[in-house]
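dumping this here before i forget
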Amino acid sequence: MKLALLALLAAALAIPTAAPASRAAGCTTVKAPAPEPNGGHKAPKALLSPGHTYTAMFVTNCGSFTVTLAAKTSPHTVASFVALARSGFFDRTIFHRIVPGFVIQGGDPTGTGTGGPGYQVVDTPPKGTQYVRGVVAMAKTQTDPPGAAGSQFFVVTGANVGLPPDYGILGRVTKGLDVVLRIGKLGNAQEQPTRVVELLRVRVSVR
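structure:
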């Protein structure tokens, strides 16, 4: 009897403890938020004050990452993004497109890949712009001019994805790149997320 109990105990101790389902893949399991209305916003009339550094913390259910915004080289894009972030525009939205080894994309209130704030700004990127790992740029359609930006953004997860210099630069990930790469693994061959990745909030800091 003692040997049998010891065997059962040993077997129990040998069973690895599975990670809770709510923390699978390093992400807290959440339900997809309800889509928000498309459009309805106006571009900010003023640019940000020069001489300051602007950062944005992206808080997701898979962790947080921080982007240093390119306020000097993309003044209209950054002013627009900051205004939207401060209004809560990005809160409770999702990363609707995840392409492993390429990009993660969010910023659409409808979650469909077709939504935006109802306006565009333009900061044409330099010809030599490269989209390397950690760069954050603005998504656009093929018919939009180079550097056009609404609210949809993407973060590059590949080493250098070889895109042409058509996409306005928002900034670069300066903290939490591991979180971005973690999210970047959660996509399938159809460029769809394999689980809900929610952008809980974006908080802008100035120094």
